[in-house]
Each structure stands twice: as structure tokens, then as C-alpha cells.
Specification:
By secondary structure, the chain is of the alpha+beta class. It contains seven helices and seven strands. A hairpin with a 2-residue loop joins strand 5 and strand 6. The radius of gyration is 23 Å and the shape is globular.
Length: 260
């Protein structure tokens, strides 16, 4: 795979396209992770990109990196809340700083060789509200991380979470060691019809539907499907408005007219 330098961009669509191309390449799981971190770093102009995945021990393991020492992969583990990476995982929200070593949560890991890198940004890899891991990027330049850079990494992390869960990047035996846990506690309040003790099974009234294919194999075909759906929607609105049988008017009708 060609790891040549490409002009830095902040277009998540290009990253997603290259991720789709990466998934089409026949290679082992570790090679895919390595190529993925290199691709993100090169496309977005970062010196370092790393992927940490949660293990059953609740530790976050460095599973792939571009820019840090290769020997630190699978040897560096962070406990929950340890370091900037652990803080991102614990809070389940992005974190950025222009001076990583000055941050109160910074945890020095000499085996990674991260001394030259000042700016840090990390985003959680979440799937269905559950913590899968943390995606990080670093650069030696001390600067503020822009909002669009964080959003691009969040977009990549969202797709990465689905890829990891599907087993397309991490092999089945590796997935068995992942701790895909809730990033925050869940508590459901039930209502009793009468006093006493009951036992039963809780069932979601509207089961959550998860997208299993976030990267289309044929983008042109998907765009055509979307255009067809939009045209069908517009046609149904036209038919409803032209029939004169709609039971409302005023602002509601004006809103529908705006979508014609």
C-alpha cells in the first residue's frame, strides 16, 4: 500500500473513501490498523495517529500507531482514567490541548517516544453509546486544534467503531478480548400496576436499529437511490397538496409548500 505523503486535507469524505478502499485490500488485521493510522495522519496533516482499543481488563491498549515507536504497539496499556487517552475514554468526549505535557492528566510513557509532540487531540470510539477505544492525533507544532479537525476525527471514529465491531479490521480472536462497555451507566425506571414482587424480561418498545454498512461499496448507486427517494417524497407531497384533501392549512401547509 502506498504511504506517500499527500496534501493535508480536512475533508471526512476523502478519508471515508480511502477507508473504503483500505477495506477492499486483502491483508491481516494488524496491517489494516497500521495502514489506517498512516492514512489518517497523512490525509489530515498530523505527525502521529494512534488507535487504542479497550480490553476486558478495562485497560486501553495501543493497538496501532503512525509516528510513535512501533515497539510500543501492544505493549503500552493505560488504566481507566490514566493519561490523556484514559481521560477521553472516561469522559466519552473529545479532548484537545496545545501543550500535552502541561495538562494535569498527562501520563508520560517513554516507550512510545512521544516527547517531541506537543499538540494532542483524542476522540472516543463509541458504538451505540459503548466505549470501544480512543483515536488520537498529535503534532510537534504547538497550536490550537480547530473544531473541524475534531469533527473529522469524530467522523472517522464513528466509522471505525462499526468496522471494529464487524470484525473487518480486528480479527475474531481479538474481538473476544475487547471490552465493549457502556461509556456511562444506564438506569431504567419501571412503572408498577400493583404492589408486590414481579419477575420478567425488559424489552425495548422501539428496538435500536444499528447501521452495519456505513461505507458504501458503490457510492454512485447509493446517490441514485437517495435521489429516487427524494423524488418520491416530493411527488407524494405534490399529490397530497394538489388533492385538496389535507386536513390542515396555514403554517403547516406553508411548510409543505416549501419542500415542493
Amino acid at each position: 500500500m502506498d504511504d506517500a505523503k499527500t496534501p493535508p486535507v480536512r475533508d471526512p469524505r476523502r478519508l471515508l473513501k480511502r477507508m473504503r478502499e483500505l477495506m477492499a485490500v486483502q491483508e491481516n488485521a494488524q496491517a489494516r490498523l497500521d495502514h489506517l493510522t498512516a492514512m489518517i495522519a497523512q490525509e489530515a496533516g498530523w505527525d502521529v495517529c494512534s488507535i487504542y482499543l479497550a480490553r476486558q481488563s478495562n485497560a486501553l491498549e495501543l493497538c496501532a500507531t503512525f509516528g510513535l515507536k512501533p515497539e510500543s504497539v501492544h505493549s503500552v496499556r493505560l488504566q481507566p482514567g490514566e493519561g490523556l487517552v484514559g481521560l477521553v475514554a472516561r469522559r466519552a468526549r473529545p479532548l484537545s490541548t496545545s501543550n500535552a505535557r502541561a495538562h494535569p492528566a498527562f501520563s508520560y510513557k517513554p516507550e512510545t517516544g512521544e516527547e517531541p509532540f506537543n499538540t494532542f487531540v483524542g476522540v472516543p470510539i463509541l458504538r451505540g453509546g459503548r466505549m470501544v477505544g480512543v483515536l488520537t492525533a498529535q503534532t510537534s507544532q504547538e497550536r490550537q486544534v480547530e473544531v473541524d479537525e475534531i469533527e473529522t476525527l469524530q467522523t472517522v471514529a464513528m466509522v471505525l467503531a462499526e468496522i471494529v465491531a464487524s470484525g473487518d479490521i480486528v480479527e475474531a480472536e481479538e474481538m473476544a478480548g475487547l471490552d465493549v462497555r457502556q461509556s456511562r451507566p444506564e438506569r431504567f425506571q419501571g412503572g408498577a400496576y400493583s404492589g408486590g414482587v414481579v419477575q420478567g424480561v425488559a424489552v425495548l418498545f422501539e428496538p435500536h436499529v444499528e447501521s452495519t454498512r456505513l461505507i458504501a461499496e458503490d457510492p454512485a448507486a447509493e446517490e441514485e437511490r437517495l435521489d429516487t427517494a427524494i423524488n418520491s417524497l416530493r411527488a407524494s407531497i405534490d399529490q397530497m397538496l394538489d388533492s385538496g384533501r389535507i386536513p390542515f392549512g396555514g403554517p403547516t401547509r406553508d411548510v409543505l409548500q416549501a419542500y415542493r
